[in-house]
Write a structure and sequence with these properties.
The complex is a heterodimer of chains A (about 450) and B (about 475). By secondary structure, chain A is an alpha+beta fold. Chain A has helices at about 1-15, 70-85, 110-115, 120-135, 200-215, 235-245, 250-255, 315-320, 350-355, 405-410; strands at about 20-35, 40-55, 60-65, 140-160, 165-180, 185, 190-195, 225-230, 275, 300-305, 305, 340, 355-370, 375-385, 390-395, 395-400, 410-415, 420, 425, 430-435. Chain A has 2 domains: about 1-215, PmbA/TldD fold, CATH 3.30.2290.10; about 220-440, no CATH class. In chain A, strands 1, 2, 3, 4, 5, 6 and 7 form a 7-stranded antiparallel beta sheet that branches. A 6-stranded mixed beta sheet of chain A has the order 11-10-9-12-19-18, with helices on one face. The radius of gyration of chain A is 24 Å and the shape is globular. Chain B is of the alpha+beta class and about 475 residues long. Chain B has 2 domains: about 1-225, 2-Layer Sandwich (PmbA/TldD fold); about 235-460, no CATH class. In chain B, a hairpin with a 2-residue loop joins β6 and β7 (about 190-200). The N and C termini of chain B lie far apart (about 55 Å). Classes of the chains: A alpha+beta (about 450), B alpha+beta (about 475). At the A-B interface, β1, β2, β3, α2 and α4 of A face β1, β2, β3, α2 and α3 of B. β2 of chain A pairs parallel with β3 (about 65-70) of chain B, so a sheet runs across the interface.
Chain lengths: ~450, ~475
């Protein structure tokens, strides 16, 4: 069915006389169960379809999207894209769609267990996760949470002869809890995970959300000091995701990344290695091809502290005279796939034991800017550490540092890697961070 | 077509009734939108979209089920009703506490936004030309090294029918032009941002000239290059309507959304208590009609009304959906909003502002011996305990009633309640023009603002 529509759209575009045409047809179905205030509150099913066509006429680009998928609507959508392209302004950088290349094999993108889930199964999973959290301690209440399972099919075609079709499954869950005791409200916790396979430990998420909420009770302010910051997996995930902006080819081209002329330079401690891995087996953002139909791949970004590569789509790669890396978010923009950080050599305990004075944070509310490296915000779910010992939870602790200095001040990387939403990261400790209490 | 849309929705609700469903509502949305994005003289995006879909929500045996579809026919809606009912059943089996909805009148109305120049009647060329011209103007200043100009329009019809006899059709139009620029000199980067976002048609650009705004924004970014970064600390500050709107919405308003109140915010259990200075009155309103967050009826078919959250410093009322109203023994307020037909409604703000006082705005600055004048917000974070941090667009040092020196890279932070308690002057110059999109798992357009006010706030120089 999808192929038929794509054929029709391609011949319509040929009639109109466009130089490039690209089509993306997606359909998805998802079940989403929402938890709110200690209850499984709502169960939703969402069925969605999108036909998106992009055409180029004299380097002028126009796109049109519709949810109405029938022959008439598809042909009129192609015409709309054409009219919009005609009305637009030329993009002098446009140099055409990519030619088809062989695609890699990637395993673990589709799990029949997820396909066979019924609404009631997701409700039971959500309920189990919620009950585990509530049973952990009577001071815990769950403010919100979600369990969502989806199936998605993507078909991409263009007038260079690319036609690709792929099906993915995914399941994700999170829970946010808060503990209350004698009028004190602790800090909200967050525990979440996502996978292409039905392999999430929902009970563990429930326990974790509750445990973190309880541990944040009795928080005390700290005084101003400079010391070690230990980033738990969730926060490490945010930091490395923010860093991906700096090696995104789009920002290299546009000049907003400070890494733009640093290939081959040592920008981090030697024990740091980072990949953008679009073909990671079972990876949440893995697939065989990207939005433009280019093959996904594994790209080494930082190897033993040295900056090796950036990530590109065809459009940006050609402008900078590089090769595309299978990172097309759409025809003009670039996005990371799975951010994979290489494992370190330390046990979690060792990381703590080496800290003289520091703060361990498990949630961060603030700004991490790749443009100038500013890291500034409030440490949440945080602990004060002295001589290797977790002393007490802290409150209202602002921290400030610089992302690029942090890369050079990493003192510890854990052996353990944890999966977050599309990131695979260790626990990391960083020296010389300013903490400002009240 | 419209007549038949409404008929289809009625037929599906009747079908649900025959299955024993006591409450059902169906929202159908037909939306056309266009986005044009220009950056440094070339087009980054030109996209036009047309989507049609419906969301069916049933309350069955104390449990909610929801299902959305994008094929609109009698059969597909009936199958969506079955799905929604199946979802509700699976939850109801072990629900501890049944969900209820507070009663609401049955309304029948066809509402049209006040639109003079329908953007669908304006040629694509003209829209693209406007964005290109704005881009050209901001790039005239050589210090401007990056920009992004975005034009966006949405023209929609929303149909709402429920099993209580409510039948609402809303025709709305939203228009948006946003201007982001970054000036750079000697490694110092200063961003500036502004936007025209209204419930209106193309006439929005007659009310506010986009080219004038382009000149203002680029001049602001360039001016900030010469500014220095201030020393941080608790300070007296005069805030403009835009920054105040951001704080009132993000750091205070969310803590008065009933669903969050029930999970515990800084305002939980505090109705009737003094939570702000007696000079402070905060309102979440369905209007004015031009506001970006215009909501005549919410997505539960409730006629939207003003919610006076704080009156003269006293916490009066929270914002509700029909469900939270039932749970808290309140009346629905028309704050049940959904991003689109693919989502169920949640408690959301509309246009949230601080009511005006009796100070002349100039007088507030003249009467300030030592402090800051802070204008506009850029981005930031707020938590349900009211703790916030925002980047400020423009800042000046005030000395003896005069603006003496500009600063850049300024942030404000603190607890919303501390800031509102410290308000000691409220201007009479109310301005509701602080539009944006608010995210709470779903995105909805909102607006807000207030007059110039003076308060105590933690000013930081974090954004070097």
């Amino acid at each position: 069915m999808s192929e038929q529509y794509i054929e029709k759209a391609l011949s319509k575009a040929a009639e109109l006389g466009v130089s490039d045409i690209h089509i993306a047809l997606t359909s998805s179905k998802s079940y989403r169960v929402e938890i709110e205030n200690d209850e499984v509150k709502r169960a939703n099913t969402v069925v969605s379809r999108r036909f998106v066509v992009t055409v180029v006429v004299d380097k002028k680009i126009g796109s049109a999207l519709t949810s109405l998928i029938d022959e008439k609507s598809i042909l009129s959508t192609v015409e709309k894209a054409y009219r919009l392209a005609r009305s637009s302004t030329p993009n002098k950088y446009w140099s055409g769609l990519p030619n088809p290349k062989p695609l890699p094999k990637v395993g673990g993108l589709f799990d029949n267990k997820i396909v066979n889930l019924e609404a009631g199964d997701i409700v039971n999973v959500a309920r189990g996760m919620l009950e585990t959290a509530l049973a952990y301690d009577e001071r815990v209440s769950v403010s919100d949470g979600v369990v969502e399972a989806s199936i998605r099919e993507v078909t991409i075609g263009n007038n260079r002869g690319f036609l690709g079709n792929e099906k993915y499954t995914s399941i994700s869950a999170y829970l946010s809890a808060v503990a209350k005791e004698k009028g004190e409200i602790g800090s909200y916790s967050f525990a979440g995970d996502a996978s292409r396979k039905y392999d999430i430990d929902f009970d563990e998420l429930g326990r974790k959300a509750a445990k973190l909420a309880i541990e944040s009770l009795g928080a005390r302010p700290i005084e101003r000091f400079t010391g070690t910051l230990i980033l738990d997996y969730d926060v490490a995930s945010s930091i490395f995701l923010a860093l991906s902006g700096a090696y995104n080819g789009e920002n290299i081209w546009k000049g907003s990344s400070p890494l733009r002329d640093k290939i081959g330079e040592e920008i981090a401690v030697t024990k740091l290695t980072i990949y953008d891995d679009g073909i990671l087996e079972g990876g949440l953002n893995s697939s065989r091809f990207d939005y433009e139909g280019s093959p996904r791949q594994r790209t080494t970004i930082i190897e033993n502290g040295v900056l090796k590569n950036f990530i590109f789509n065809t459009y940006v790669a050609r402008i900078l005279d590089k090769e595309p890396t299978g990172n097309a978010a759409n025809l003009l923009s670039v996005s990371p796939t799975n951010t994979v950080v290489g494992r370190g050599d330390m046990d979690e305990d060792e990381i703590f034991s080496e800290v003289k004075r520091g703060v361990y944070i498990r949630r961060f509310s603030g700004d991490i800017r790749f443009q100038d490296g500013v890291v500034s915000g409030v440490a949440k779910q945080a602990f004060y550490i002295e001589n290797g010992e977790k002393k007490y939870p802290v409150k209202e602790c602002m921290l400030s540092g610089n992302l690029y200095e942090m890369l050079k001040n990493i003192s510890g990387i854990s052996k353990k890697i944890e999966r977050r939403f599309g990131t695979y990261v260790p626990m990391v400790s960083v020296e010389n961070i300013a903490f400002v209490g009240k | 077509m419209e007549e038949s849309y409404i008929d289809l929705l009625h037929r599906a609700t009747e079908y649900a009734h025959s299955l024993g469903v006591k409450y059902i509502d169906i929202r159908l949305e037909d939306r056309f939108s266009t986005n044009v994005s220009i950056r440094k003289k070339y087009s980054e995006e030109a996209l036009t979209t047309h989507t049609v879909g419906a969301g069916v929500r049933v309350l069955y045996d104390g449990a909610w089920g929801f299902s959305s579809v994008e094929v609109i026919s009698s059969e597909s809606l009936i199958s969506a009703v079955k799905d929604a009912l199946g979802m509700a059943r699976s939850i109801s089996l072990s629900k501890k506490k049944a969900s209820h909805i507070a009663s609401s009148e049955a309304y029948r109305e066809y509402v049209k936004a006040d639109v003079k120049k329908n953007p669908l009647d304006v040629s694509l060329e003209e829209k693209v030309r406007m964005a290109i011209e704005v881009d050209k103007i901001v790039l005239e200043k050589e210090e401007i090294k990056d920009d992004r100009i975005r034009y966006s329009e949405g023209v929609y019809k929303k149909f709402f029918v429920n099993s209580e006899g409510t039948e609402i059709v809303i025709e709305g139009t939203q228009i948006l032009l946003s201007i982001y620029v970054a000036a750079e000199r000697g490694g110092v980067i200063t961003p500036a941002y502004d936007r025209i976002s209204k419930t209106a048609g193309f006439e929005a650009f007659d009310m506010k000239d986009p080219f004038e705004l382009a000149r203002e924004v680029s001049a602001r970014a360039v001016r900030l290059l010469d500014a220095t970064v201030p020393k941080g600390g608790l300070a007296t500050a005069v805030l403009d309507h835009d920054l105040l709107g951001l704080i009132v919405h993000e750091a205070f308003g969310h803590t008065a959304e009933a669903d969050l109140v029930m999970s515990g915010t800084v305002l939980t259990g505090k109705i009737g208590q003094q939570v702000a200075s007696p000079l402070v009155t905060i309102i979440d309103s369905p209007g004015p009609s031009y506001a970006f967050g215009w909501v005549p009826y919410d997505d539960e078919g409730v006629k939207a009304r003003d919610v006076i959250i704080v009156e003269k410093g006293i916490l009066k009322e929270f914002m509700h959906t029909r469900e939270t109203a039932a749970e808290m023994g309140a009346s629905p307020t028309g704050n049940g909003r959904a991003q689109d037909y693919r989502h169920g409604p949640l408690v959301r703000m509309r246009n949230t502002y601080m009511a005006p006082g009796d100070w002349d705005p100039e007088e507030i600055i003249q009467e300030t011996r030592d402090g800051f004048y802070l204008k506009g917000g850029l981005h930031g974070q707020a938590d349900s305990n009211g703790e916030f941090m925002f980047a400020v667009q423009e800042a000046w040092k005030i000395e003896n009633g005069k603006l003496v020196k500009p600063y850049r890279g300024v942030t404000v932070s603190g607890l919303a309640i501390d800031v509102l308690r410290s308000v000691d002057a409220v201007g009479k110059d109310l301005k509701i023009d602080s539009p944006g999109f608010c995210g709470k798992g779903q995105w909805v357009p909102v607006d807000g603002g207030g007059p110039h006010i003076r308060c105590k706030i933690i000013v930081g120089g974090g954004m070097r």
